[in-house]
Design a protein that fits this description.
The complex is a heterodimer of chains A (401) and B (145). With 401 residues, chain A is an alpha/beta fold. Chain A is built from twelve helices and 15 strands. Chain A has a seven-stranded mixed β-sheet, sandwiched between helices. Chain B is an alpha+beta fold and 145 residues long. In chain B, 43% of the residues lie in helices and 17% in strands. Chain B contains five helices and three strands; from the N terminus they run αβββαααα. In chain B, strands 1-2-3 form a three-stranded antiparallel β-sheet, covered by helices on one side. In chain B, helix 1 packs across helix 2. The radius of gyration of chain B is 14 Å and the shape is globular. The chains are: A alpha/beta (401), B alpha+beta (145). Chains A and B meet through helix 10 of A and helix 1 and helix 2 of B.
Chain lengths: 401, 145
């Protein structure tokens, strides 16, 4: 698989796909081909190129619709990324539907992008933001779901944690939420590249993801919303292409999804994302899962042999996906990652845009390795060797090891 | 590997040394420095002489990587006992060194152990760790003016 990815031909062990995945040749080429053969502003010209560009862009909605099994392509809105999708929901849905005393329930493992917008909206509307916490096994216990009550209007949940790799039981959370008439926002940023998403089967009200974490280009993301919800919402960003008629004092808006896609859109991004989906489909989620599950199992087994590590993930591997946070006891993750970098191992260190989660775990930062389809056992072996070397460098001075 | 030279014995000893990592019984100024991107956080405490002209004692608490912890400890060793004017000058020399600008032999002597951070720009992502304490103290001394 590595041969599909130009950057991985270099001497690098890339274990940071949770931050962004590498891009295959087909995605890179599709973008350059778009500019070489089709480029024009969609929805604006009557000439051939603009019509082609419009077709490519509109079709992209249809392809995303099939990819996540939405009912209609009207339910697919292109945004800049998952963060923008979440802000759109918070402002266009949250602001108009929350009242004083209403509650928004999110999990403590949320990325800042599914947390900070809710803080803001709750403050504006005097609503209450509540958290579902995790147990000692990095999972949300059923008892935490009791925080979802008739007062709850919105529930925000990440499908997979970008810190502990926990796979949340979103289906159950959605079921409970719907019993209380709360709408559920699912952040699929960390799951979309690794498992089949079916929004109808899940019954998510909103679901968001970014293209760049699933082998597609940066700068384009998806907002899925149930049609009746999106229809009921006011636009988030106003301007060209999202209107029907504009008068001096009033405007009527375009149909879905254009209502939420103001201004000239990222057509190259849509083209690249479509190609990434084709790439994923050509491999198939079954094969992706088999490969990544085996690699995850191997990584866990090898890491667990090292007694100088702290590991932060669920014991049950069936509830764990693609992301492993760890620390070398007594060694700051930034030192470790700098040293790993000299060995051409790329992984992330820091708080992973999840400060409340790390604070709740009583840690400041972690090293985080994350895997994708192009990783192999050799990558894990290189990491293990490097971790041993870092520990050896520090253990003489470090009283904690 | 040349980049790894930064993690030499002297730096590691400073990084894990408790000598300067404590709270002072009394101090004249205290300031918090942090790197929001990496979460490093230090609190500097400075005790001045009775005429407020000299740094009589200095300590730090907080958490961070080996480079930020060591550069803080080294800074304290280097600047303790110096007049505020001297301290400001040495801080400027340190900034020049980190920026890879030419510094004279006399100036480099003033930096003492801090010279070991000379090559930190080989690890661009870590420059801010080596600067954290020095910027915090610099701001603190400037605000004392």
């Amino acid at each position: 698989m590595k041969e599909d990815f130009p950057l991985l031909k270099e001497n690098v062990v890339y274990l940071d796909s949770a931050a962004t995945s590498q891009k295959p040749f087909c995605v890179i080429n599709s973008i350059s081909n778009y500019y070489k053969t089709i480029n024009a502003n969609p929805h604006r010209g009557a000439y051939d190129l603009s019509v082609k560009s419009t077709t490519v862009y509109d079709n992209a909605h249809e392809i995303i619709k099939k990819f996540i099994n939405a009912k209609s392509s009207k339910e697919i809105v292109f945004t800049k990324n998952a963060t923008e999708s979440l802000n759109l929901i918070a402002y266009s849905y949250g602001l108009d539907n929350l009242n004083e005393g209403d509650e928004v329930v999110i999990s403590i493992m949320e990325h800042h992008s599914n947390l900070v917008p809710w803080q803001e909206i709750c403050k504006k509307k005097k609503a209450i933001l509540k958290y579902m916490y995790i147990n000692e096994d990095y999972e949300i216990s059923d008892s935490e779901l009791e925080k979802i009550t008739d007062k709850t209007k919105i529930v925000g949940i990440t499908h997979v944690s970008n810190v502990s790799g926990t796979i949340n039981d979103v289906k159950k959370i959605i079921e409970v939420s719907h019993k209380h008439n709360a709408k559920v926002v699912v952040d699929a940023s960390q799951s979309i590249a690794h498992m089949k998403i079916d929004v109808q089967e899940m019954d998510a009200d909103f679901l968001v993801f970014s293209s760049h974490k699933m082998y597609g280009p940066m700068g384009i993301g998806v907002l899925y919303g149930k049609e009746e919800l999106l229809n009921s919402m006011t636009p988030f960003i106003m301007g060209g292409d999202m209107i029907e008629y504009v008068y001096e004092q009033d405007t009527t808006y375009a149909e879905l999804p254009q209502k939420f896609e103001a201004g000239t859109q990222n057509v190259e991004g849509a083209v690249g994302l479509v190609e990434a989906i084709k790439y994923i489909n050509s491999i198939g989620y079954d094969k992706i899962q088999n490969h990544e599950r085996e690699l995850l199992k191997y990584a866990r087994e090898e890491l667990e042999k090292l007694d100088f590590l702290d590991l932060y993930y669920p014991k049950n591997i069936d509830h764990h996906s693609s992301v492993i946070s760890l620390n070398i006891k007594g060694v700051h993750p930034h030192d470790a990652s700098s040293i790993l970098d000299t060995m051409h191992i790329a992984l992330r260190s820091g708080n992973h845009c999840a400060q409340p989660y790390l604070r709740s775990l009583n840690i400041d930062s972690t090293l985080r390795m994350s895997i994708a389809i192009y990783n192999d056992k050799k990558d894990i072996d290189e990491l293990i060797k490097a971790l041993i070397k870092v520990n050896d460098m520090f253990k003489k001075y470090n009283k904690e090891s | 590997m040349e980049e790894l030279d930064i993690y030499n014995e002297l730096l590691m000893e400073h990084a894990y040394s408790k000598k300067n990592k404590k709270e002072l019984e009394s101090f004249d100024a205290c300031s918090l420095g942090h790197n929001p991107n990496c979460g490093d956080e230090i609190k500097l405490e400075v005790k001045l002489s009775s005429d407020k002209s000299t740094i009589e004692d200095m300590s730090f608490t907080g958490h961070g990587c080996a480079i930020s912890q060591a550069s803080t400890s080294i800074m304290i060793d280097t600047l303790k006992g110096k007049s505020i004017k001297e301290a400001k000058e040495i801080i400027e020399i340190y900034f020049k060194m980190i920026r890879r600008e030419e510094i004279s032999k006399e100036d480099s002597k003033l930096l003492k152990d801090a010279m070991i951070l000379k090559n930190i720009s080989n690890m661009p992502a870590r420059v801010k760790c080596a600067l954290l304490a020095w910027h915090t103290l610099d701001d603190m001394l400037k605000s004392e003016d």
